[in-house]
Specification:
heterodimer, A: alpha+beta, six-stranded antiparallel beta sheet, 4 helices, 6 strands, B: mainly alpha, three-stranded antiparallel beta sheet, two-stranded antiparallel ribbon, flat
Chain lengths: 168, 322
């Protein structure tokens, strides 16, 4: 039987993390692979620092490509890493057989974001959905001083991956 | 349980990725080693050097130095190639290419390969590369590489592994400011890390500048390269290349290549990223002090150089590359 592409993607992703992350520069390589498959998320050049079921940590280096005219990190770059962190935490926590799409994204900006930024998302264990189910996931973004610069709240619509041949 | 080796095509794919990854720093390294040979080329011009070689008027010492440099480059290339595979496979069970394509190296008993097995594999890798027309068909006959057969190792497909358990809550939110600071910042950068970063950055710049110098001198011709203005221009190019490299990498990548890899960060007096004035002083002062500004770092507990003291900057080491 042909494997379901969506279902095996999470397994491939977690396996790749397990293989690459112990290597020197492996987290950077893993993040480049993610960026290849999710090009817009990859455009900010964030690096996945920790990846576990329901818990993800991502760092973003402050540089010209992610800045705005106010000499700080652009609001949408922050939204980008927050959404990526929340999405990875939700989908990897659920494992195979589930897919998700963002239906709502809210972000509170609390401080000008400068320097190295760390986005962290932790999602309490979620039941595998049997029908389309909304789920809210939060990610906090901090600077090197430990101050929260932004809080991203993403609403994900989670649904089981349909079997091959059925309407998606 | 018998573990079967992965298919040759997948392993060749992994080898091609590894070759590509290794070749980039290896080429830079080779360029630096060969840089002294470029000096006569730049000084006399390539036509004159070829003429000197053909006329056999070069001293034996000069030829010996040239031969030694070429030999050192060959040894560097071979050693770096071997160490890339040996260290990664011994320590992590896979190279980058193997990890990307889901392969791993293990002994036949399922344990990690020993150092002896690793050395045998790499010796046979060279043999198989040299005897490629024979070793490649043999691979299909044996169902594994000759090196694996001799060393008693196998390269199977790496099965999917579960992720380690992760905390279900936000960890960073529960940390105090000091704990968070310790999580991000590993303290002042030691002098050895700074010197290593300097050497690596120097290598990167040389890797770019040495071919540029050849192209420029070839375009200018021997007459111009031997004139004082030409010499001055060629000498200024590498001097200007370092500040330009730092400025551009800082702007577009956040830090120089080596500082990003070694997780070093230059901060101003306030702890924020250093500003343009500090950056200018950091480049200008070492030129004036001719390296003596490093000495205070040997006595200072936080490896502070004279340049750091004058400009009010400090170099910190982060926990993770940035």
């Amino acid at each position: 039987m042909k494997k379901n592409a969506d279902a095996s993607a999470i397994t491939r992703l977690t396996s790749l993390w397990a293989r690459l992350s112990p290597l020197p520069g492996g987290k950077f390589a893993f993040s480049k692979v993610i960026g290849h498959f999710i090009p817009y998320s990859g455009s900010v050049g964030a690096v996945v620092d920790e990846l576990g079921p329901s818990h993800v940590r991502i760092r973003l280096q402050d540089r010209r490509a992610v800045r705005n005219h106010l000499r700080c990190v652009h609001a949408i770059a922050l939204a980008n890493i927050g959404e990526l962190a929340s999405g990875l935490a939700v989908l990897i926590g659920l494992g195979e057989g589930t897919r998700g799409i963002v239906t709502s994204l809210k972000i509170d900006y609390r401080k000008k974001a400068r320097g190295l930024l760390i986005a962290e998302a932790a999602v309490p264990q979620v039941e595998k959905p049997t029908r389309p189910t909304p789920h809210t996931a939060m990610a906090e973004i901090r600077d090197t001083a430990g101050d929260v610069v932004a809080v991203v709240t993403a609403e994900w619509l989670l649904s089981p991956v349909p079997a091959e041949g059925t309407k998606k | 349980m018998i573990v079967h080796s992965a298919k040759p095509l997948r392993r060749i794919g992994a080898f091609a990725i590894d070759l590509g990854l290794w070749s980039l720093p290896a080429t830079f390294g080779a360029q630096i080693l060969l840089a002294p040979l470029l000096v006569p080329l730049l000084w006399f011009g390539p036509q004159e050097v070829i003429g000197l070689l053909e006329a056999q008027v070069l001293s034996p010492a000069a030829l010996l130095v040239a031969a030694l440099l070429i030999a050192a480059t060959c040894v560097f290339l071979a050693l770096s190639f071997d160490l890339y595979f040996l260290l990664l496979e011994k320590r992590h069970g896979a190279t980058y290419g193997k990890a990307l394509l889901g392969l791993r190296v293990e002994a036949r008993n399922g344990q990690a390969p020993t150092l002896g097995q690793g050395i045998l594999r790499l010796l046979f890798r060279w043999l198989e590369i040299v005897l490629f027309p024979f070793s490649f068909p043999l691979w299909f006959v044996l169902g594994e590489r000759l090196g694996d057969r001799v060393a008693g190792t196998v390269v199977p497909s790496d099965p999917a592994r579960p992720l380690p358990d992760a905390p279900p809550t936000l960890v960073l939110a529960s940390l105090s400011r000091e704990q968070y600071g310790a999580l991000v910042d590993a303290g002042p950068a030691l002098l050895r890390w700074r010197l290593l970063a300097g050497f690596l950055d120097y290598s990167v710049v040389c890797g770019f500048v040495s071919p540029l110098l050849i192209v420029v001198s070839l375009c200018m011709g021997a007459d111009v390269t031997q004139s004082w203005a030409g010499q001055l221009g060629l000498a200024l190019l590498p001097l200007l290349a370092f500040p330009a490299y730092e400025s551009l990498t800082r702007k577009y990548f956040g830090a120089t290549v080596a500082r990003r890899i070694l997780a070093l960060r230059v901060e101003g007096a306030t702890g924020a990223k250093s500003m343009l004035r500090e950056w200018f002083l950091r480049w200008f002062l070492p030129l004036v002090t001719v390296g003596t500004s490093l000495f205070p770092a040997l006595l200072s507990p936080d490896s502070k150089t004279l340049t750091d003291s004058w400009t009010g900057t400090r170099v910190r080491r982060l926990r993770a590359p940035h």
